[in-house]
Amino acid sequence: MDELKDLIFSLCAEPGTPGDESAVAKIAAEELSKYANVHIDCMGNVVAKMGKQGAKNHIMLDAHIDQIGLIVTNIDENGFIHIDRCGGVDRRVLPGSPVTIYGQEVLMGIVCCTPPHLSDGSVEKVVAVDKMAIDAGLSKEEADALIQPGDRILLNASPKCLIGSRITAAGLDDRAGVASLIRCAQLLADEKLDCELTILCSSREEVGGQGAVTGTYSVNPTQAIAVDVSFAEQPGVPPEKCGKLGGGPMIGIAPPLNRKMTDDFIAIAKKLEMPYKLDVMGNSTGTNSDEIAVTRGGVQAKLISIPLRYMHTPVEVIDLADVENTARLIAEYIKGVE
Taking Cα atoms as reference points, which of 157, 187, 221, 163 lies closest to residue 330? Predict the structure, then answer.
């Protein structure tokens, strides 16, 4: 598990907000190049090719490589940096949080917050992100020299180990999924595959999935498996909507997803005596699998999710065993494709 932990920590250590994923894409490409032919396309997608090229069956694996963050909109006359969302950041965790600003230099800042003595006492009212600002301790002149509109910002959080095989980090949505695909490539490296295999670490999922759309169109697979995160058990969350940390991959069931592939994955999990949870959704999945399924003339699509707590915060939590089992489950499926 230490090797897998180090891989995830190295991915989470690199910035990669939507449309600006180049730093983390470089790490993913370096890791995948140990097992596959790799390139980065014009959308910032990492594309890795394995298996029997030109085979009748072409499987694509997808995990998005971007993470939620903030974007600079302007700097006011007092040097405060005004911001907006870059992806679905949870505004409740922002006030008073330390942040890293990726400008001409890497700078530290604090999201401004009103002292409780001067507020109306309500803890329910959190202003919209585009009404917030960041204090980097700079005058307007100093800030203008180092920061410009469009620069990206991340909540300042370092990956850490928890008890057992659990870890916490910002960006585990979906660097955990990316790590599972890299691990899957490692498991398949010495296998003689009868299918063509493409691994896509796609860009811009947090703002609409554009990388998955263009990547799928270019790859033109016959089947696709998206790996993302879903909710893990925690206080205040309905248990029927949750997986369990250490409880194995969550096998998605939803209208956009292929039912036969679902049955195949359930059978494989049982054969491997691997824990799993069915993740039933009555509409769309809210992941790249929705877009992948309707690209070109349509793609047989599947969704496998890794249970995660505290989604879209800087303290997301996963269990490494679930990442490993996700990789093993997908690798076993691919080995059976003729």
Answer: 187
> Which amino acids are annotated catalytic?
205
d(CA 175, CA 66): 8
- Contact at 8 Å (CB) between 277 and 250? yes
For helices 172-188 and 320-335, angle between their N-to-C axes, nearest 10 degrees: 40
- Beta-strand ranges (E) seen in 34-127 are 37-40, 46-51, 58-64, 69-75, 81-86, 98-102, 106-111
Longest dimension (CA), the chain: 67
DSSP 161-176: E-STTEEEETTHHHHH
Q: pLDDT per residue over 158-188, tens digit each?
A: 999 999 999 999 999 999 999 999 999 999 9
Strand intervals (E) in 65-195: 69-75, 81-86, 98-102, 106-111, 133-135, 152-155, 160-161, 166-169
pTM score: 0.94
pLDDT tens figures, 261-310: 999 999 999 999 999 999 999 999 999 999 999 999 999 999 999 999 99
Backbone φ and ψ of 259, nearest 5°: -70, -35
> Which amino acid type is present at position 60?
M
Could you give the 3-state DSSP secondary structure of residue 307? strand
